[in-house]
């Protein structure tokens, strides 16, 4: 375990979030000899931490797990410790603009501390909404941790040829996910609404188009409530329904959207946020203002929190070093 880092009062760059985007930005800043601090809740809060294998990471032809990649990135950050401080676990509190700088207050080891920086990078990521069974999200964890239930179509769609697939969700995202997964040639795709109505509140014209898509591609919709999962030993996605019936799929896909996009910090700093909750930036990752759409000096966003592709290699370029 590395020694306890004592944060300095002032940095060139303050990074909120120590996932793939935040760690890469901290590494790059250190290599550029910019004094930097990464404030992180901890690796287990990274969206990819429990991913057993990722095949879309450059340099790893046999794939790599999310937690292993985070470990390697953190080891790289440790190499530039003369310039970049990594502090975890912390709970970030107030974030505000003070003149031409940013002030961040956080709690660590039951002590409140404040650091300031000339620039601030938002890399807090997003949180997937998990399927709930009996009011709890825990039941799905074993299937998610084994990669039997996935959350990223672009990351894992290539594993689906010849597989039977269940998509969980009720919104247009779920219908579009079910239709898009057909690109990879699964044996079948089914849509499960878990006891909830399909496409609630969707305008009639859009609703009719989406339902027509499901019918045209013979995608069945099951509306029964899910009361349990099974098949973990066989590495299959088995489901038990409230009516007593059961069914088994090779893979599951959660298409429930985000539980949180951590947009409250960005909004508090006057940033423009898209209807989906992402921070709007220019091509260099500079955050745009809500009112006039101009760049907010010194404020950046990277990774899943930024509007754009939710892919680790896309997060690595990070913000411009201007």
Automatic annotation (TrEMBL):
InterPro entries the UniProt entry points to: FAD/NAD-bd_sf, FAD/NAD-binding_dom, Ferredoxin-NADP_redctase_2
Keyword Oxidoreductase appears in the UniProt entry: yes
Oxidoreductase recorded as keyword: yes
A Pfam cross-reference name: Pyr_redox_2
Record keywords, A-Z: Flavoprotein, Oxidoreductase
FAD/NAD(P)-binding domain residues: 11-316
GO terms assigned for molecular function: oxidoreductase activity
PANTHER family recorded: THIOREDOXIN REDUCTASE 1-RELATED-RELATED
Protein name: Thioredoxin reductase
């Amino acid at each position: 375990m590395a020694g306890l880092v004592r944060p300095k009062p002032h940095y060139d760059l303050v990074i909120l979030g120590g996932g793939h985007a935040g760690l890469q930005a901290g590494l790059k800043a250190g290599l550029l000899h910019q004094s930097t601090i990464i404030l992180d809740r901890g690796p287990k809060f990274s969206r990819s931490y429990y991913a057993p294998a990722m095949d879309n990471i450059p340099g790893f032809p046999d794939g790599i797990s999310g937690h292993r990649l985070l470990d390697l990135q953190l080891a790289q950050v440790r190499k530039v410790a003369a310039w970049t401080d990594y502090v975890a676990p912390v709970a970030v509190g107030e974030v505000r603009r003070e003149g031409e700088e940013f002030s961040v207050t956080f709690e660590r080891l039951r002590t409140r501390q404040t650091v300031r920086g000339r620039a601030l990078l938002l890399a807090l990521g997003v949180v997937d909404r998990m399927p709930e069974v009996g009011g709890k999200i825990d039941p799905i964890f074993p299937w998610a941790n084994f990669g039997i239930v996935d959350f990223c179509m672009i990351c894992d769609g290539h594993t689906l040829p010849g597989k039977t697939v269940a998509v969980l969700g009720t919104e247009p995202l779920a219908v579009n996910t079910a239709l898009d997964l057909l690109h990879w040639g699964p044996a079948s795709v089914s849509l499960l609404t878990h006891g909830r109505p399909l496409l609630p509140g969707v305008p009639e014209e859009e609703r009719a188009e989406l339902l027509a898509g499901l019918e045209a591609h013979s995608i069945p919709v099951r509306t029964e409530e899910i009361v349990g999962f099974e098949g973990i030993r066989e590495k299959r996605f088995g489901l038990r329904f409230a009516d007593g019936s059961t069914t088994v799929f090779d893979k599951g896909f959660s298409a429930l959207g985000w539980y949180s996009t951590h947009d409250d910090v960005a909004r508090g700093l006057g940033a423009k946020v898209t209807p989906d909750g992402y921070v709007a930036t220019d091509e260099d990752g500079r955050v745009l203002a809500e009112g006039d759409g101009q760049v907010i000096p010194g404020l950046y966003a990277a990774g899943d929190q930024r509007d754009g592709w939710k892919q680790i290699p896309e997060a690595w370029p990070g913000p411009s070093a201007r």
